[in-house]
Design goal:
The protein is α/β, with parallel strands linked by helices. It folds into two domains: 155 residues, NagB/RpiA/CoA transferase-like (Rossmann fold, 3-Layer(aba) Sandwich); 102 residues, TIM Barrel (Alpha-Beta Barrel), CATH 3.20.20.140. It has nine helices and 13 strands. It has a five-stranded mixed sheet. The chain is elongated and about 65 Å long. The relative contact order is 0.09.
Length: 273
């Protein structure tokens, strides 16, 4: 069973639950959480606000506040997720994908020892997790791996072993005169997706990458006089798969080539594309 099929199966089982079942199971999970050493030792809880049939976390977060702990929940900004401290769990509204999140944008939580309560579709005893497909928690924990974590899930969401790749998060490829080697590596790991940084390959390779779900990023190089082939690549791929970058302090666009690059010069790249 692949990841897509597994997600569909778990979602079907969750939709079949009654509200009474959800509340009863959530209450039991809350009791187990409060009894855990991870909870007792934590001064800050990075929780989440439940959506659809997720474990009802509000009573747990309210208890954490009564226990004198600080509570923060996630808020999505584009492709980034930040945790916002909350003292009042009623100050929420629908946000990304209809998921509840704080109305306020601050204060932003920044405690790397905070206990993270993990939502998700499936988990295994080895600590692997399958989320909802946005990759927000994967990216967050990749940037702050020191957080202790606790998975909140129903019994049918805990599986003996998940089929996961070692690198199941988006990656950035820096390809310098190694187009063939990089592409062969990608073919060996078809589920890995990400961005080709400061792309310098062919239009044909870019098209194949896009078929496999990759994004192509261009820097100030596209403005250089000898960048004819790169411009052909830009014209050959869909706009929604193009990203722009500075590669600061390098690759400043014309007419600033050779000088320190910055995001202030991106309009020159945009005009060329």
């Amino acid at each position: 069973m692949n990841k897509q099929e597994l997600r569909a199966m778990i979602r079907q089982k969750k939709r079949a639950m009654t509200e009474t079942e959800i509340e009863q199971k959530s209450a039991r999970l809350g009791q187990l959480l409060m009894q855990s050493n991870a909870y007792r030792q934590a001064n800050v809880i990075y929780g989440y606000l439940p959506y659809n049939q997720e474990v009802r976390t509000i009573p747990m977060l309210e208890q954490a506040l009564r226990d004198g702990k600080r509570v923060a929940v996630p808020k999505v900004y584009g492709d980034e997720m930040k945790f916002i401290y909350l003292d009042d769990l009623t100050q929420i509204a629908k946000g990304y994908a209809g998921i509840p999140e704080p109305v306020a944008d601050e204060p932003v939580a920044c405690d790397r020892n905070a206990l993270v309560l993990m939502p998700g579709l499936a988990f295994d005893p080895q600590g692997h997790r399958i989320g909802y497909g946005g990759g927000f928690y994967d990216k967050f924990l990749a940037s702050e791996p020191e957080h202790p974590t606790v998975a909140l899930c129903y019994d049918f969401q805990m599986l003996p072993q998940l089929d996961t790749e070692e690198f199941d998060i988006p990656v950035v490829i820096h390809d310098r005169e190694a187009h063939g080697d990089c592409f062969e590596t990608i073919l060996k790991h078809p589920r890995v997706k990400g961005v080709f940084h400061s792309y310098s390959g062919s239009a044909e390779m870019a098209k194949e990458l896009i078929k496999r779900g990759w994004y192509i990023s261009f820097s100030g190089v596209v403005t250089f006089k000898n960048a004819k082939k790169l411009i052909e690549t830009v014209e050959a791929i869909p706009l929604e798969r193009i990203l722009l970058e500075t590669d600061c302090p390098y690759m400043a666009p014309e007419p600033y080539r050779g000088k320190r690059n910055s995001s202030l010069l991106l309009p020159y790249v945009i005009e060329k594309i």
